[in-house]
Amino acid sequence: MSNRIPANTLCLQKQFPDIYKQLFSQSSIVTSAAGCFWFAGEYAVLHGGIGILQKVPMRGYVGITPLEQPEVIDLGGWEYVPSKQHFKPVDFNYWWQSVKGPFTDFIQAELRAAFPDNPEKGLKFSYISEIPPSTGINASAALAVSFATAFLVFTGELQPDTCKNWKKRKASELLHDPLFDR
């Protein structure tokens, strides 16, 4: 166990700098979100009840770069495999083929609404998941939140400073923020 790499963001960034460098160097916007684990109440909170949630020190990252053609391109990504102590390329091809049409149609419609004077706007995206899939630590939620945040920054509907200020606010305050109604 002495050769075990601690699976947290800082250790993974130190151990695999090229993976992160690739994402950050090829992307105009990069956002991330932490994974989390519900001890109890994940459904109760939907109805106003109490839940016990723990953030985990692993994140999902999404990088977006603009295109000057109306395309949405998945450049692929990486996911960490703790049992092998390395990142492997993500193979979302099975998923991408099933959602590509509706997903790209939705994103392109949102881009046309955000940039009405530039209907040729598109984007390419890539991602890193430090959170192993199918572990109950919300890898898909972290990537979805990261993508949504990067997209809203890309379209100008969300300012980076707003995201920085969120870290300083209580969850109860954030729930009443109009940006969360979108």
Summarize this, please?
This protein has helices at 9-15, 17-26, 93-114, 139-155, 160-166, 171-174; strands spanning 29-40, 52-67, 72-81, 86-89, 122-129. With 182 residues, the protein is α+β, with helices and mostly antiparallel strands.
| Count of helical stretches | 6
Which percent band covers the strand fraction? 25-35%
Give me the side-by-side strand order of the main sheet. 1-2-5-3-4
- Rg for CA atoms: 17 Å
The count of strands amounts to 5
Structural class of the secondary structure composition?
alpha+beta
- The arrangement of helices and strands along the chain is HHEEEEHEHHH
Query: How would you describe the shape?
Result: globular
Q: Which regions are unreliable across 5 or more consecutive residues at pLDDT < 50?
A: none
Major sheet description: 5 strands, mixed
Distance separating the two termini:
46 Å
Mean pLDDT: 86
Helix content: 25-40%
Task: Please provide a written account of the structure.
The chain has helices at about 10-15, 15-25, 95-115, 140-155, 160-165, 170-175, and strands at about 30-40, 50-65, 70-80, 85-90, 120-130. With about 180 residues, the chain is of the alpha+beta class. It has a 5-stranded mixed β-sheet with strand order 1-2-5-3-4. The longest helix has 22 residues, at about 95-115. The chain starts with 8 loop residues before the first helix and ends in an 8-residue tail after the last helix.
Task: Chart the SSEs and their pairings.
Layout: H1 9-15, H2 17-26, E1 29-40, E2 52-67, E3 72-81, E4 86-89, H3 93-114, E5 122-129, H4 139-155, H5 160-166, H6 171-174
Parallel strand pairs: 3-5
Antiparallel strand pairs: 1-2, 2-5, 3-4
